[in-house]
Design brief:
The chain is an alpha/beta fold and 256 residues long. 40% of the residues lie in helices and 16% in strands. The protein has an eight-stranded parallel beta barrel with strand order 1-2-3-4-5-6-7-8, surrounded by five helices. β3, α3 and β4 form a beta-alpha-beta unit. The protein is globular, with a radius of gyration of 17 Å.
């Protein structure tokens, strides 16, 4: 069944990056859960560093908060020192995995081709990939936003058919907005989200395009979440900095 886009359940995901030890994470969850008691009709995901999975998985057993990872290898197991596999993520209680984050692309040379392998592997293992795509400031200034978005999306979804794609989440994360305090204007983000939805229609079909959750990431804070979420094609958000504090992340979840 095709869902109306505006009725779609929002997804609010926290990307903790390389932050928090066990004590800090436990204290976050305890405060955060109290603050989001009344949040309804949203999916909330926390993507912590790997060292926190075990503790958080226990703590979130009966909670509405889901666990996600920030990255993974595409192979199930093997001689890949320092890597983590989709099977390990499942075993640790993960439901989501962020793939192709711009920091992975920038600092760890991840290419669309590698990200495509990871997306395929995540889908095969029933993990929900949060596929990040987005342009740099230079690319936007050179009017290349659509070209970049189209190339990244097509390449990262290469050879994935319509039966495999249903758990995909796309995160539009303009690189110039990540960690800079400079969020995209709601209309600017909406234009790209609408474009991404049109690409999903072109690559797949109306059902997939209408049902795809397309979330926005880049300097989301309690002050700007409401305006962003008013946009028809913005179905949630990926939050970095503001997700580290239980109060500000709860304000974002409650506003969404
Ligand atoms: C991110 O890194 O995915 C992100 C959105 O970061 P921030 O909210 O800090 O811009």
């Amino acid at each position: 069944m095709t869902m109306s886009i505006s009725k779609m359940k929002a997804l609010i995901a926290a990307n903790w990056k390389m932050n928090k030890d066990i004590k800090e994470a436990v204290s976050f969850v305890k405060s955060f859960e109290k603050l989001i008691k009344n949040a309804k009709n949203i999916d909330i995901v926390i993507c912590p560093p790997f060292t926190l999975f075990s503790e958080l998985n226990q703590l979130l057993k009966n909670s509405k908060i889901k666990l996600g990872a920030q990255n993974m290898h595409f192979e199930d197991k093997g001689t890949f020192t320092g890597e983590i596999s989709p099977l390990m993520l499942k075993d640790a209680g993960c439901e989501y995995v962020i793939l192709g984050h711009s920091e992975r692309r920038q600092y760890f040379n991840e290419t669309d081709d590698l990200i495509n392998k990871k997306v395929k592997s995540a889908l095969r293992h029933n993990l929900k990939p949060i596929l990040c795509i987005g342009e740099t400031l230079q690319q936007r200034d050179n009017n290349k936003t659509r070209e970049i978005i189209e190339n990244q999306l097509i390449n990262c979804l290469n050879d994935i058919n319509e039966n495999e794609i249903k758990n995909l989440v796309v995160a539009y994360e303009p690189v110039w907005a990540i960690g800079t305090g400079k969020n995209a204007a709601p209309e600017q983000a909406e234009e790209v989200h609408k474009f991404i939805r049109s690409l999903l229609l072109k690559i797949y079909n109306k059902k997939i395009s209408d049902n795809a959750r397309i979330i926005y990431g880049g300097s989301v804070k309690p002050e700007n979440i409401k305006c962003l979420m008013k946009m028809k094609n913005i179905n949630g958000t990926l939050v970095g900095g503001a997700s580290l504090d239980p109060k500000s992340f709860a304000e974002i979840c409650n506003a969404a």
